[in-house]
Amino acid sequence: MKKYIVLTIALVGGLFLLDKILGQDPERRNLDFAPDMAQSVAYEAESPNPHFANGQTQQNPVAGTIARGFRPLNFGSTIEESLRAGEELVNPVEQTAALLERSKKIYKIYCQPCHGAGGQGDGPVTRRGYPPPPSLLLDGARNMKDGQIFHIITYGFKNMPPYNAQIEREDRWLSVAYIRKLQETQP
What we know:
Elements: H1 2-22, H2 35-38, H3 79-88, H4 97-115, H5 139-142, H6 146-155, H7 169-185
Helix pairs in contact: 3-6, 4-7, 6-7
């Protein structure tokens, strides 16, 4: 029993002595036993790097890789590709009440300035000299397949700019669904 008391006192005394040696000064940094974890040997993106054959730190991605969160569309921006998209692409979004509200919001932000609130091609920018787009209620737009409208929103067509950088993929499908809703309600 006496051994345990002496051992405990020695251990506590040793810890107290260790604390005094190392110190607890809040103004001073702690001792760093493995500095390579905090201060790695990293190269700047544009700096030379002797570890690669081309001597550059910034490398091109491996051929065939796709960035995380990016799903490519394998279509070009031509009319033929638009028709092909109409045949191959199907709207994956089911229209619910909540999604209908979101699709209406997307239409108001991105489509209404040119196409107008009712889709007739009479948006506010057309009153300022921008060429009016065709009405979304005409047979030409009604006869287009959803994939073709999605392609036009994505890649643009004639005076319409591409919206693939501004509108997320699902939101583009939602705007197609809202256009279909407009066509149902308007004669």
